[in-house]
Amino acid sequence: MQPLMPEPLIPVEKTLALIKPDVTGKEEEIEDIILRSGFLIVQKRKLRLSPEQCSNFYADQYGKMFFPNLTAYMSSGPLIAMVLAKHNAISYWKELLGPSNSIKARETHPDSLRAIYGTDDLRNALHGSHNLSSAEREIRFMFPEAIIEPIPTRQAAVDYLNLYVNPTLLAGLTALCKEKPADPM
Known about the structure:
CATH topology of the largest domain: Alpha-Beta Plaits
Low-confidence stretches: none
Number of strands: 4
CATH class of the largest domain: Alpha Beta
Strand content: 5-15%
CATH superfamily of the largest domain: Nucleoside diphosphate kinase-like domain
Radius of gyration: 21 Å
Oligomer: single chain
Mean pLDDT: 89
Shape: elongated
Distance between the termini: 41 Å
Helix content: 40-55%
Strand order of the largest sheet: 2-3-1-4
Number of helices: 8
Largest sheet: 4 strands, antiparallel
CATH architecture of the largest domain: 2-Layer Sandwich
Number of domains: 2
């Protein structure tokens, strides 16, 4: 009798989703659509970015005509950042979003989120990562404490341990040494 082999792991991709300032009031509706579309919301937070933070987030758009308006719009109010997970999450999320110009989206993809909630090319209601590398960068930007799989190795792992794990261990072990409990477990 052969031993049972474990089921192969299904790779799950993560992407960043932003509900932009002018549609945060529709958060529950949008989340419902996201969940019904098979996504898992791994992390979520509400935040407000400064114009400087927006400039850093959209650094790849720097120099384009719409850049000042984009940073002003994105810093005009709170937004909702979410990490979505699903097999091929990036492509499925982009498909659900539709074209970046909401006016064109209403013509070509009337059921897309941008067609439903967006108003124009700039105020298109939602953001999605373009590819895997931008998803990783954007998730780290919005959720700096997040561990993005694959788990970091080599210098990235050492940096993570030094920054987050070692200080906690040091504080805990120091407290343990000071207390000297009879049963440290």
